[in-house]
Amino acid sequence: MKELIKNVEGNNQINLLPPVEYKKSLELLKEYDVALIIEAPCGEGIFLPTKVGDYMSHNTPIFSISPSVGVLNDLYQKNDVQYFADISDHSMIYNEFKKIYNDYKNGQLKNSSFNHTYGKEYILNLYNTL
């Protein structure tokens, strides 16, 4: 990832952080313009990190680097995830970083909005119908 980023214009604006505890991640979220989710390469991405809901509830744009077949790409297709690149396509990742930087530079980052279907009330009501 660092190799891809070093060639992107504005790479001094990109900070990759090590994993942190959940509460610390919520504090850090307030300080950054885009949240990055990287999913492991696999045939189908079935992972939906709880962070997605956190990012949405803070209206933080989401950049997902994950399999082109999977949950996060489905969310991208529905405009719930704002930026997407296939984990196995380095040029797609690079180009999406460029797109995000251009949006950032032009004040046009696509803000996330909380989708009610990921909220606790909706999920509890859905569970209660089972």
Describe this structure in words.
The chain has 130 residues and is of the alpha/beta class. The protein has a single domain, classed as 3-Layer(aba) Sandwich (Rossmann fold), CATH 3.40.50. Helices cover 39% and strands 10% of the residues. Helix 3 links the parallel strand 1 and strand 2. The longest helix is centred in the last third of the chain and has 16 residues. The termini are far apart.
Key terms for this structure?
single chain, 130 residues, alpha/beta, Rossmann fold, three-stranded parallel sheet, 10% strand, globular
From the helix content, strand content and strand pairing, which structural class follows?
A: alpha/beta
CATH class: Alpha Beta
- Uncertain regions spanning at least 5 consecutive residues: none
The fraction of residues in strands falls at: 5-15%
Our count of domains comes out at 1
What does the main sheet amount to?
3 strands, parallel
The shape, in one word, is globular
Rg of Cα set: 15 Å
Q: What is the terminal-to-terminal distance?
A: 42 Å
- In total, the number of strands is 3
What is the CATH architecture assignment? 3-Layer(aba) Sandwich
Strand line-up in the sheet with most strands: 1-2-3
Q: From N to C, what is the helix and strand string?
A: HHEHEHEHH
Average pLDDT across residues?
84
What share of the residues lie within helices? 25-40%
